[in-house]
Write a structure and sequence with these properties.
Layout lengths: L1 H32 L8 E3 L5 E3 L1 H4 L18 H12 L6 E2 L7 E2 L1 H6 L4 H24 L15 H12 L48 H5 L14 E4 L3 H7 L14 H9 L2 E5 L3 H4 L4 E8 L3 E5 L9 E2 L14 H11 L1
Antiparallel strand pairs: 1-2, 3-4, 5-8, 6-7, 7-8, 7-9
């Protein structure tokens, strides 16, 4: 009888243990197999465990005291270009232009927290533009490429130009082109066949700028020169070169007064005949570009005809006869373009 009672007691204990095990198992099971709110966030391993996918559901919280990875420092060229690009079209900072003196509001720039190196570069570009204006007014020479500026007066600009020469293959934002699809059928050949900017992005239209591109990049700027090269000269034989050029729509260069330095007078006469071109007037103004030509003695002429290029023509160095400019220090850019190309 006792043995039967002991057996029953043992059986009850075993049943209790089994019930406890089952309870614990049922309690733990949902936590292991519960479907997450976003199943795409998780991956189930072969052993049944789950791993959160950071690239889907976000990064893990940083460990306390852990330092974030350092970004690679921007080159001086990229830094200068970014800073200038952000303010170049700001009419509150840059004022004047065309026939007026250009000014830069340094105090407003300081209040806005604009970096000092960008302020200094901007002020020097304004100084260059105003010096070119003064020289043209003093000599009567409209072509600003006739003048030889002393760049030691503009050290920030000189350094900026040097950085451009060293970084010709670098865009202002290498990642920007990833956001736009490039026209696979478009080819870039001196800007003749297609309209592609220095970022490698095909422009959507020849007549209007894309929403993401400012006037500086669209019409031409130091980090995105347009056109990206000068047209090769083509020579034509003709018995009356000047009459031929006039019939093609060219106008002869202005003749400076006799008191002007002979070097400048000679250059002004040799600097070429100009046929102004208006391309995307709403964005870039009138007569902002030009075709260029010049008589070669009395029997031939050379010509740079930009027909079919985008933009149509090289930046017109007779900046005082064009406008409104894409931005207030446009002459400083045009002066640089002709010095480089």
């Amino acid at each position: 009888m006792l043995k039967e009672k002991e057996k029953s007691r043992i059986f009850v204990v075993l049943l209790g243990v089994l019930a406890m095990v089952l309870t614990l198992t049922l309690h733990l099971q949902p936590a292991q197999t519960k479907t997450p709110q976003n199943p795409a966030c998780y991956m189930t391993r072969a052993d049944g465990s789950m791993v959160i996918l950071d690239h889907v559901c976000g990064k893990k919280k940083p460990v306390e005291g852990e330092k974030p990875p350092l970004k690679p420092p921007e080159s001086e060229f990229i830094s200068q270009s970014r800073g200038l690009h952000k303010i170049l079209e700001d009419k509150n900072l840059f004022r004047g232009g065309n026939s007026e003196i250009v000014t830069f509001d340094e105090q407003l720039a300081i209040q806005r927290g604009i970096p000092q190196e960008t302020i200094k570069l901007s002020k020097e570009l304004v100084g260059m533009t105003n010096e070119l204006r003064s020289l043209s007014q003093e000599t009567g020479i409209n072509d600003i490429t006739a003048f030889n500026l002393d760049m030691s007066k503009y050290p920030s600009v000189a350094q900026f130009y040097e950085n451009i020469d060293q970084n010709k293959s670098k865009s202002l934002d290498p990642a920007s082109s990833k956001s736009f699809s490039k026209d696979k059928d478009a080819t870039l050949k001196n800007d003749e066949s297609s309209d592609i900017d220095e970022f490698g992005i095909a422009l959507r239209s020849k007549e209007s700028k894309p929403w993401w591109m400012g006037r500086d990049q669209f019409c031409g700027v130091w980090w995105n020169p347009r056109p990206s090269s000068a047209k090769k000269r083509v020579i034509f034989n003709n018995s009356n070169p000047e009459q031929l050029l006039r019939s093609w729509g060219y106008k002869s260069p202005s003749t400076p007064p006799n008191w002007v330095d002979s070097r400048l007078r000679n250059y002004a006469q040799r600097s070429g005949w100009t046929r102004p071109q208006t391309w995307n007037e709403r964005e870039c103004g009138q007569r902002t570009y030009r075709d260029n030509a010049n008589p070669l003695g009395s029997s031939s002429v050379w010509e740079q005809n930009y027909d079919g290029w985008n933009p149509r023509g090289e930046p017109n160095p007779e900046v005082w006869a064009s406008g409104p400019w894409p931005y207030n220090v446009w002459p400083a850019y045009v002066y640089w373009w002709h010095d480089r190309y």
